[in-house]
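[Discussion] Sanity-checking designs against the backbone

I'm trying to build intuition for which residues belong where. Below is a structure token string of 198 positions. I'd appreciate it if someone posts a full sequence so I can compare it with mine line by line.
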């Protein structure tokens, strides 16, 4: 594949060891590629280095991880997201926004969320994949996913954002022994909604 072609990627805002194994498995299952070098706490590569890796991947879709290591604010993961998303040779099919317990973050809107049992839900989910919300809360306030690497997503033109709990975990529901069903469903939804045809 020529590096001059636009590469189609899915952004995933998690990059710890467990998430990396899950994303690698899902990439294999959908016939895509995972940028394993993007895993880490925080993301070890900057945006320019990530683009180089993406352009060298064998085929699409390319799954790329971004992580701020639990820190609020504009960290390395979010800086890399912005650079990659705005690169002229990159087409972002969608993003998987991963919830965490990080405080002092703005969060991001999402289009769909998937709970720990694999059901599509209209409300936000927490780190464990449980539906969040307080009785009487305005729906608008409950349409945001809160995590350490998601705030920048609202500032970018991403066609589909899916909220999920902690990838590869969610109290065992997304464990690799089960094929990481929540993460896989999120990736497959993004591919379907984007019209991707590998």
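Best answer:
Here's mine. Compare freely.
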């Amino acid at each position: 594949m020529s590096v001059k072609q636009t590469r189609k990627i899915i952004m995933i805002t998690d990059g710890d060891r467990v998430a990396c194994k899950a994303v690698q498995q899902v990439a294999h299952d959908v016939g895509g590629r995972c940028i394993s070098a993007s895993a880490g706490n925080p993301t070890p590569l900057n945006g320019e280095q990530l683009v180089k890796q993406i352009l060298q991947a064998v085929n699409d879709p390319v799954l790329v991880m971004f992580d701020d290591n639990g820190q609020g604010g504009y960290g390395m993961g979010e800086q890399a997201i912005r650079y990659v998303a705005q690169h002229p040779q990159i087409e972002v099919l969608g993003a998987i926004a991963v919830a965490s317990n990080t405080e002092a973050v703005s969060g991001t809107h999402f289009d769909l969320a998937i709970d720990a049992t694999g059901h599509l839900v209209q409300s936000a989910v927490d780190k464990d994949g449980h539906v969040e919300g307080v009785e009487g809360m305005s729906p608008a306030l409950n349409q945001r996913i809160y995590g350490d690497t998601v705030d920048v997503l609202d500032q970018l033109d991403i066609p589909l954002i899916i909220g999920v709990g902690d990838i590869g975990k969610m109290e065992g529901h997304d464990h690799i022994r089960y094929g990481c069903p929540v993460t896989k469903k999120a990736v497959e939804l993004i591919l379907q909604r984007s019209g991707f045809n590998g």
